[in-house]
Amino acid sequence: MSGRDRISDLRDLLGSADTAWLVGRVRERLARGEGAAGAQLAGRVVSRAPTHGERLAVDRLLGPRPGRGDSLTVDLTALERVLRAGLWPAGLADAVQQLSGPVTVRRDQRQREAAAWAAAAAAFEPAVTAHPVLRRWFDSWAAGGGLKRLGRAEARRLGRADLDSSGPAEVAGAALGAAARVLAALPAAGELRAVFAQRVLGEAHGLDRGRPVAGVAGAAVEVLTGCADTRGAWEALGILTSNLASTVLTLGVPAVGSGGSAATAAALEAARTEPMALVLTLDQVRSGAIAPLDATGVVLVCENPSILESTVAQLRLAPPASRDVARACLVCVQGQPSVAALEAIVTLASAGAAVRYHGDFDWAGLGIAAGLARTAPWRPWRFGAADYLAALERSRVGAAHLTGRPVESPWDPELAQAMRREGIALEEEAVVDQLVEDALAAW
To answer: Could you tell me which residues come within 8 angstroms of residue 63 by beta carbon, excluding any fewer than 6 positions away?
Structure first.
């Protein structure tokens, strides 16, 4: 008998609608891992409400059987014996797969998928190597389903509806590998995002909003910087949306006499002598128009705009006697410092001026202060443990409880200890009068 004839006879015997239930039960046994490597299937399968046609089909397979109860039982050992002795020597498992297609063993499939997802997660290791603080965040993100959501999102973006069960893991691994290259390349030096993406990923739009890679990398930079604003977090690590999007709020910044941008210098000088707050773009900060303060000057840096606004109001009421020489200026970082803020502070202090910093007495404020110190070293401006405790005595009523993960205060270790002990957060506005008084004295 030819192979084609044998297949045809097998289809007549096991491939009808009346044996579909039996084939289905055998496939389920195979999916559980039975009948592997040519092993014979054993045991029984039962149809609880068989049709007349199903009973006749089983009679054709195994011969008429005594008794006709409500159910229909097939002895797989007997069926194996009949097939192997005659029509199909390879056995029942092979016969069923010839008729209805290969069966995937679920245990093996789970192992393959687990290995694929483990390989995907491993693609993020270069980022963790560069920034160990990301380890806990990544493990939590992956365990919470982030890794699989990434795979599905990237598969949709690529139009890959044809992916098999391991496919989403493969595209997730590719996306994580790209995100890891981005993170390992940080911090950057004030580079436009599109230019950075082209350099690192080979695709200028690789970090555009909506891209799964951008989502993962954006969440990671928030962890690295402690900044909940994604754009601010990118900026803190030197990646800019544009040179115009990165700005800094200033007061009293002096201008060079010549050599820089005449337009920016004129704006700086006008704002200093009026006095008036001035928002500078990164282009203006880099224009060469900012004059550094010498060693007798001070660059006061605050976190919140209200401090700068209050200082402007008081300067207008009581202007300094002379404005010919700039002795002080005020820079407001407005939370996580932008690249424009960092570069402005560094430029202003480059001739020896002291940098003094004050921020919110909360964990985010301490994190911002510590981050700023890595680029622009500073001395505390009423920002130590004694200042916190004194402010707390005046402002305890209505004060908020500290929330979030504690942060150290290297400039005054006792500050973080006092904050942990008291458990109270104080915003910068709680000491605005003292800060303004200091600013006026420095002017």
So the answer is: none
Structure tokens at 71: 């159910």
> What does the alpha-carbon distance between residue 285 and residue 240 come to, in Å, rounded to a whole number?
14
Write out pLDDT tens, residues 161-200: 555 555 788 889 999 999 999 999 999 988 889 999 999 9
* Residue that finishes a domain, picked among 79, 103, 127: 103
Select the more confidently predicted residue: 251 or 395.
251
Alpha helix (H) residue ranges in 289-362: 305-317, 339-349
pTM for the model stands at 0.60
Dihedrals phi, psi of 73, to nearest 5 degrees? -110, 135
Residue the block writes with tokens 């010839």: 98
Pairing of strands 247-251, 278-281: antiparallel
User: Do 97 and 111 fall within a single domain?
Assistant: no
Return the DSSP state at 325. Answer: S
Q: Where would I find the beta strands (DSSP E) of 324-394?
A: 328-332, 354-357, 379-380
What is the H or E stretch that residue 75 is in?
Answer: strand 72-75
For residue 389, give the CATH number of its domain.
3.40.1360.10
Residue 335 has what DSSP assignment? S
* CA distance linking residue 188 with residue 197, whole number of Å: 11
Within this chain, do residues 187 and 223 fall inside the same structural domain, yes or no? yes
- Segment 282-304 mean pLDDT: 95
Query: Could you give the CA distance from residue 174 to residue 186 in angstroms, rounded to a whole number?
Result: 19
Domain carrying residue 353: 247-442
Answer whether 195's CB lies under 8 Å from 139's CB.
no
In three-state secondary structure terms, 161 is coil
Based on the structure, what is the number of domains in the chain?
A: 3
Beta bridge partners of 298: 328, 354
Q: CA dist 163 to 100, 154, 159, 170, 210, Å?
A: 22, 11, 10, 9, 21
Same domain? For 213 and 352 the reply is: no
- Quote the CA–CA distance of 7 and 11 in Å, as a whole number: 6
Instruction: Tell me: do 259 and 392 sit in the same domain.
Output: yes
What the block records as the tokens of 197 is 């993406």
Q: 163 and 288 in one domain?
A: no
Nearest to 302 by CA among 248, 236, 352: 248
**What would the pLDDT profile of 83-132 be if each residue is shown by its tens digit?**
999 889 999 999 999 999 998 888 888 888 889 899 999 999 999 999 99
